[in-house]
Give the backbone structure.
Amino acid sequence: MLLEHLFVRDYRNIEQADLDFSPGMNCFAGRNGMGKTNLLDAIYSLSFCKSSLAQSDALTVRHGADCFQLSGTYLLPGDNRTVIGCMYRMKGRKQISRDRKEYQRFSDHIGYIPLVMVTPLDTELILGGSEGRRRFMDVVISQYDRDYLHRLIAYGKALQQRNALLKMETAPDPEMLLMWEQAMADNGQAIYERRQELIGQIIPLFNEIYPSIAGRRECVSLSYVSHGQNGNLLEQFADSRARDRAAGFSLCGIHKDELEMRLDGFPVRKEGSQGQNKTYLTALMLAQYRLLAGVCGKKPLLLLDDLFDRLDSERVENILSLVSDRSLFGQVFITDVDRNHTDAILGTTGCEYSTFTVDSGTVK
């Protein structure tokens, strides 16, 4: 799968860009704050119907404008082309379309244009709370399993209702509790099984990719921890009612799932250097890419934001050598502050590439 053409108007600091891309690597070069990451974010938005950077659509509209417009022309397997459009008006609503036909539900688009993005913000996967690590699993699975996304929504609704009952001053109705617990158990079991399957598939890919980037022996591991491993969820909810009532919220369930990330037997967040943390995250994201390419039947787009930061030259060259292998990876988009540096490294890969200079929102 390829993104052949991208049109951007009034998106963040990009007034207008009309770009044709190489089927291999594409690099956006320019000083910090010029708009390189905003171009990657526009590509991300066409896949996920939302920005990777802003919580609100209004924050993605360029200052002084009243709407933004994005359009991407994609070449799919079988030489089929499709055009994905995204428009948001400050006084209206966001519209996502495929070949000019508007989606009624954005969730119906998720997974159609699979994409993996590696950014400096990914450090929160290691340094932040477990919510971010659960979100990582959810984003991966939702790109190839639509039922999973629906179950996540249903579980979240049931959890919210159960927590509201637990917070009541008077004793909650046991039948009402049971109703929401049953919904949590049914959907939670399915979510647990799919997360467990995902991590089981990612681990061997991660174990293969990490040493190829690090270039030296570093013992890393990834494991999944869930209350689903403790048996029947419905029974666990019943057993935990008194504790949950005292706490005012649900203490067990798949909303407490965790990914344990270790380096040399210790948590990466405590043991790893900044370079090792970034290597770990990049290997994890590339493992995610390889998995998606297998289950989606088309190679995702790969976005590498600020790849060169905090990594030594050996690890950077190893990453670029890996992702330039067209038998494993497809089209790649990279940002860097130094065009000469980028051209020198990309030139060694033997891969076809294009470089775009970004200056104050203008792309050449």
About this structure: The CA atoms of residues 138 and 215 lie 30 Å apart. The first strand starts at residue 2 and ends at 11. The chain has a mean pLDDT of 94. Residues 174-214 form the longest helix (41 residues).
